[in-house]
Amino acid sequence: MKQILSFITLCGLIAMSCNTAEKSPQDVEAIMQDTSKYTTIKWQDTAINFGTKKMGEIVNITFACTNTGSKALYLYDVKPSCGCTLVDYSKAAIAPGEQGKIEAQFDTKKSHPGEVHKTVFVRVNSSDPSTHLSFSGTILPADSASTPKK
Prior knowledge:
Elements: H1 2-17, H2 25-33, E1 41-43, E2 47-54, E3 58-67, E4 75-80, E5 85-89, E6 99-107, E7 114-124, E8 130-140
Parallel strand pairs: 2-8
Antiparallel strand pairs: 1-3, 3-6, 4-7, 5-6, 7-8
């Protein structure tokens, strides 16, 4: 009997720990609609300049945020402004006081030489649910070598 009770308790603990795991898009959408589940967020940077890169290079950008509220924070519906950028982000709940991140990978081959400005659109469960994160820099043509040609 003691073993059965221990097993049931263990199952309960596992089920409770699942509440902080990844939520389905429907779960997160419901949280986004329920203002009682809103929290606050602080972004480390919302605009990053990556400097100068040569055409063909991959640029990796990380946007970090901290959940400054008292409820779980969810990053949701994270989308880049164009096909030259891929994004990955913290999909599990971010506990109060913890950090989350969005990693953007910009492929300069899919862009153009010169100044570039890109945006990552993010929805979060806060009173200001839409965030625009941006990065910019200069892309040099691939044939612009730093060493003289022979």
